[in-house]
Amino acid sequence: MTLNPAELNELVTAAKSWADEDPDSGTAAELRALLADLSADASAAAAAAEELADRFAGTLEFGTAGLRAALGAGPRRMNRAVVRRTAAGIASFLQDTAGDRYTPSAVIGYDARHKSRAFALETAAVFSAAGIETFLLPCTLPTPVLAYAVRALDTDAGVMVTASHNPAADNGYKVYLGGRTVKGPGKGAQIVSPYDAEIAARIDYSVPLKSIDIAPEGWTDVSESIVADYINAVDRLASRERFPERDLKIVLTSLHGVGGETMKSVLKDAGFRKVIPVAAQAQPDPDFPTVAFPNPEEPGALDMALATAVEHNADVVIANDPDADRVAVAAQNPADGEWRMLRGDEVGALLGRHLTRRITSGHWKVRGEKTRRGVVFANSIVSSRLLARVAEAAGFAHVETLTGFKWISRVPQLTYGYEEALGYCVAPGLVRDKDGISAGLLVAEMAAALKARGRTFFDELDDLAVEHGLHLTDQLSVRVSDLGLLGEMMARLRAQAPVSLGGSPVESAVDLSEGSAELPPTDGLKYLTADGTRVIIRPSGTEPKLKCYLEVIVPVDSAADLPAARAEGRARLDAVLADVNTALGL
């Protein structure tokens, strides 16, 4: 890029000022090296100017996902200076909310990514100096443990330093509100509007960083017993009365994340003794050396786990993402002998069916209370409609929400919720968020119960198709280098909606940005066709992507019709994909 002299001088001044007050000598040196490169040869100088311009083109946007970005110096990267200002904004929000009525409190957790502990300590120092009663979790732990601690310690806020399944170069900052800050079903959940805007308004980049007080001490280190409490609480979800089977060989991977030991302990304490970790991925490693992208949804991420499963003749693969709030499941399909990962919608429906059996048999207890009445299942609007049919057949209520567990977890009387991106909340009384540990335990319980009856996940999916129609889903993700392209593609669709998809006329085109009685406004479009095909298109909330979610439903009369139904469904999905590509101008 080319900057005029005035723009370059302004950029240099901003970078020097940032480096001078940066509390991290490493990121300060990083900036000074870029400034030095401005005096190097033309190629190096141009690259340095472009990099500096990107780092100082505004500030990281604090929203309902908190913060997430690449590590590095500057206001558009994750670093101690940005964390300090963000923590000060959160502290101000908590103090303003509390007023003179009480002393606000917060608990902080962190994973094993680069700088995670440093960011957690920075947050603790700011909170303590601001008069927040602050608790720091004892070590690197999964996000669900932090979400559990917000409720168990009854704190007014929680902060988890993690970038979840993002690349190794990233880190992030999730914020939960509970205690006296949020009442009702949102207590202990991640922030939504207007809380995000109220916190963002208090994050001030105009004042000198040194004006934000930090304390060298004053926070409380939480006992490691909090981890044991979480494990015990999760293990109480497992039923030994109705589903006593534990003969299951499980391959477990945490993809170099922090969930391995916790997941292994939960399974062991629940009676699952044949757990085989993927050795090369078992220990936390912030560089994620064996995977190109530490997301179990990405192609190749589970290759080592699947190879281990074949080697040991395992029954199931359970994979957590790096902060263990998601879980992926893979199994061997008896139809062709091939191992494959189940789609998030498949696991979502299977867990719904499993929980339905436990609820209707009276063997589902959370914190000692049977949830026989007022059962509510929920999933995001981009997830399959199959769970709604499972709930309806059982006489349960069902709710659709916007994408993200910050919405799913707020459903009143929620019993079970999921979203297609491998997120499952099976115990909202314990963790008001997706939880890959507790969901992984119930997956193991379900697999063992099926194995004891000579059945598999695929038999269950066949039964669901016969009972409720074959629900097939697919996705199209369009990654962009310029975020402005997302707006252009959405504007194109709003100006000229497709008249048919997969050969079926579009009967309903809903602009989700207008909101409704059921859903708050969100940037997205939903199309329904005459044959029941559904397409939802929306910009990703965490990545520079446009995401398109497709679902077709094919009626099935008997198991004998399934092969033909699958072929028909796949053909319809392919036709819809082609039409969506055309509508997007791809």
Can you walk through the features of this model?
The protein is of the alpha/beta class and 586 residues long. The chain is built from 17 helices and 24 strands. The strands form five sheets. Strands 1, 2, 3, 4, 5, 6 and 7 form a seven-stranded mixed β-sheet that branches. It has a six-stranded antiparallel β-sheet with strand order 19-24-23-22-21-20. α1 (5-21) runs antiparallel to α2. The longest helix is centred in the last third of the chain and has 23 residues, at 562-584.
Helix content: 25-40%
The biggest beta sheet is recorded as: 7 strands, mixed
SS elements, strand count: 24
- Structural class estimated from helices and strands: alpha/beta
Attribute tags:
about 575 residues, alpha/beta, seven-stranded mixed β-sheet, six-stranded antiparallel β-sheet, 17 helices
Task: Give a brief rundown of this model.
With 586 residues, this protein is an alpha/beta fold. It is built from 17 helices and 24 strands.
Describe the secondary-structure layout.
Elements: H1 5-21, H2 25-37, H3 42-55, E1 67-70, H4 80-98, E2 105-110, H5 116-129, E3 133-136, H6 143-152, E4 157-161, E5 170-177, E6 189-190, H7 195-200, E7 220-221, H8 225-235, E8 249-253, H9 260-269, E9 274-277, H10 303-312, E10 316-320, E11 327-332, E12 339-341, H11 344-360, E13 365-366, E14 369-370, E15 376-380, H12 386-394, E16 397-401, H13 405-408, E17 414-419, E18 423-425, H14 436-452, H15 457-468, E19 470-479, H16 484-495, E20 500-501, E21 504-511, E22 525-529, E23 534-539, E24 545-554, H17 562-584
Parallel strand pairs: 2-3, 2-4, 3-7, 8-9, 8-10, 15-16, 15-17
Antiparallel strand pairs: 1-5, 4-5, 5-6, 10-11, 11-12, 13-14, 17-18, 19-24, 20-21, 21-22, 22-23, 23-24
